[in-house]
Amino acid sequence: MPNSEEKFLYGCVFCRTGQEKVVAELLERKYEGLKATAVYQIKHKSVQGRKTTEQVVVFPGYVFFYTEAENAVFPDIGHMSGVIRLLQGQEGRWALSGQDLEFASWVFKQGGLIGLSKVYRENDKVKVLSGPLKDYEGNILKIDGRSRNALVEFRFDERIWKVWMAFEWLD
Questions:
Q1: What residues have CB less than 8 Å from 13, skipping those under 6 apart?
Q2: Percent with pLDDT over 70 in the chain
Q3: SS3 for 88?
Q4: What is the largest CA-CA distance in the chain?
Q5: Is the predicted pLDDT of residue 3 greater than 60, yes or no?
Q6: Can you list the positions of beta strands (E) in 38-132?
Q7: What is the gyration radius of the CA atoms in the chain, in angstroms?
């Protein structure tokens, strides 16, 4: 995970759905000093009345990475197995900026895994005590207390993503 005082450039590749983990590993092996991850989340799962959790990819087909190399280039990245293309901004640069940069930085602060946030009820409001939703600056659209999930809005790649995120109730 990057240190907040260090300067990193963040990027993202679009890959075949289901190949996120393999592509992240390939990127790290091919480019020295590069760290890559798909975005995973812990979700609640109920099978035959038994409640468990599972880890799933949140943004299928996206792998985020960061590097310290200011002049890093990836001319052959589109020829790597599973990779469709390197995402580029309007200026043709691969380094993310604006909301995309903030989102990628947040992903790596979470270690690539969006775990369970701990929440509690205070009067008529739900307060986030800890976990990824505490640091998240965005819209929490809806909370389903029964299923222990919150509908959260993310902005990335010029799209709005609505994702149900799991949480734990505290008394």
A1: 23, 27, 62, 63, 65, 77, 83, 84, 85, 86, 87
A2: 85
A3: coil
A4: 55
A5: no
A6: 40-47, 50-57, 62-67, 83-86, 113-114, 117-122, 125-130
A7: 17
